Amino acid sequence: MSPALIHCPKCQAELLPQAFNQGTFEPCASCNALLQIEIFPALFRRPEAGRAGEGILTEGEASCFYHPQKKAIQPCEGCGRFLCALCDCEHQGQHLCPSCLETGRTKGKIKSLESKRTRYDRLAFALALLPCLLFYFTIITAPITIYVVLRHWKAPLGLTQRSRSKLVLAAVIASLQIAGWATLLIALLTK
Amino acid sequence: MTEPEYIKLTSPRQRGGFAVVSACRSSLWLGPDHLLSVESEGYTESYKRFYFRDIQAITMRKTGRLVVLAIVTGCLCGLCGIVALAWDAIEAKWVFGLLAGICAVPFSLNLLYGPTCACQLRTAVQTEDLPSLGRVRRVAKILARLRPLIAEAQGQLSAEEIPPPFPQPGPAPTPTPTIGEAPTAGIAEEPPRLS
Fold first, then answer.
1. Which of B27, B42, B53 is opposite residue A42, by nearest beta carbon?
2. Is B64 at the interface with chain A, CB within 8 A?
3. Which of A136, A141, B26, B31 is the most interior residue, by most CB within 10 Å?
4. B73: which residues sit within 8 A by CB, 6+ positions away?
5. Averaging pLDDT over each range in A170-174, B10-14, B82-86, which range is the top one?
6. Half-sphere exposure of B19 (CA within 13 A, CB side)
């Protein structure tokens, strides 16, 4: 992607800078699509050049765990290994090695790197509610719902979600279904 | 690490343009230093973060979805209304009247929400569609909210940072002037106006 060039999202033609930050829709010179472009200073700034590790000059200098020939500049805040400038990944003020960063991402320890979550509350809610359309299925799904609720009660919610109301509601609906079946069973047995 | 508080910017919206029933829904949230795009697919959610310091441009393109939706829902509404008026049976009048009423809801909401658009966000390494931003009015409101946050993160652009005139659009290269011919004028007389 070349810097400081904006393309029309429809025809991919390069756009004239006069059309930027006007606050109104301007037609694309090539396809006449009405466009409004907001550009920000980051468009003109070159990305920072990556750092290369500095070689060891004197004997006895601490070396990088991953590159023994490079000079260590920072210990990893996750595992304590010495890191060279190349391996030192700064993330939200923390200096981590690539391995700790990857572990944090995959295990969900670094929230800001998390890119996917399963919504167990939605699953439980659907399990509790959808079988109500065919009531006989609830004899199987109600206990499964209770299991899902209990098993995943402590599982992290969605990033934008604040309460476990759906889990609670699913548990209530499933409990009512189980109670209904139990009443029916008792009524049939006592007849 | 604690999870940041997010403020809802847009409600979940289907990813496909005219998809009425789609498994994938997209919404946009405002974080402390980034925008969060949430895509829900069934029981999973995937997240994309766009940090304010990295946002280079936001592109909005006007689309004709408003007209198409208005025609479709308007026709359905009108058709049901005509059938309700033409049919003698009172039950049929009720049924088609109700259907006309149901179709009138999306018709009016569509007109109420105003013009439609397709939005894209550009960073140094990606250009992402923002399907949750589908209405011009909504995008204008969100942009007004984002501008100061992005300016705070990126600062103001100094004059020397702005490169000299952008290249001429279009694939054809500028012809070199021949002797005796007046030179052609440059394209950008003034640098882009930045907030």
1. B53
2. no
3. B26
4. B103, B104, B106, B107, B110
5. A170-174
6. 13
ipTM topping 0.85: no
Whole-number Å distance between alpha carbons of B48 and B39: 8
CA distance A127 to A142: 7
pLDDT 10s digits, B87-132: 888 888 899 999 999 999 999 999 999 999 999 999 988 899 999 9
Picking from A34, A36, A39, the nearest residue to B192 by CB comes out as: A39
Q: What are phi and psi of B128, to 5 degrees?
A: -110, 135
What is the token pair recorded at B162? Answer: 């702005």
| Residue B91 buriedness (CB in 10 A; 0-12 / 13-18 / 19+) | exposed
**Could you tell me the two tokens for A14?**
């390069």
**pLDDT tens-digit profile of A59-116?**
778 888 988 888 888 899 989 999 988 888 888 788 999 999 888 888 877 888 888 8
Q: What dihedral angle (degrees, nearest 10) is formed by the CA atoms of B150, B153, B158, B162?
A: -60
